[in-house]
Amino acid sequence: MTYREMYALAVKNLAPREHSEFFSSGYVSAVLEGANGKYYCGLNIDLACGLGFCAERSAAAAMIADGETSVRRVVCVGEKGDLMTPCGSCREFFRLLSPANLQTRFLVGLEGEKTLSLAELLPLPWERERG
Ligand SMILES: [Zn+2]
User: Fold this and answer.
1) From its phi and psi, is residue 77 left (phi > 0), alpha (psi between -120 and 50) or beta?
2) Gap from CA of 37 to ligand 1 centroid (Å)
3) For residue 60, how far is its CA from the centre of ligand 1 (angstroms)?
4) Mean pLDDT in each 10-residue stretch from start to end of the chain (131 residues)?
């Protein structure tokens, strides 16, 4: 799948819903390509108490359930189809899933399919030096 096809799938999957005054979902949509060559989709889930999670991590949960932890590419869009870069929690989440994910490419511009790696988005690890 090309980046544009991943983008089109992410837009197609958008499903904004207000389930209740405390629960909404589907305003952000992500498509991941695992190192296994499979694609995983996810939507954001927001709860009024501050819980919930991002579309990227929702897609990653499906990938992990399928036995994969390394991600090749990520495309994430907001409700108007605008490309989104991952929040700090997602950046850290992907980094800790697998060291290989420092090479994960995130689509940041449709023109010329501009991407950034996770290493570029998250250059400094938080944990102490080990060893
Ligand atoms: Zn996030």
Assistant:
1) beta
2) 22
3) 11
4) 98 98 98 98 96 96 98 98 96 95 97 96 74 54
The closest of 42, 27, 17 to 94, measured between CA atoms, is: 42
Rounded to the nearest angstrom, the distance between the alpha carbon of 74 and the centre of ligand 1 is 12
Backbone angles phi, psi at 61, to 5 degrees: -60, -40
3-121 folds as Cytidine Deaminase; domain 2 (3.40.140)
User: Residue 130 C-alpha to ligand 1 middle, in angstroms?
Assistant: 27
Query: What is the predicted pLDDT for the residue at 8?
Result: 98
Q: Let me know how long the chain is.
A: 131
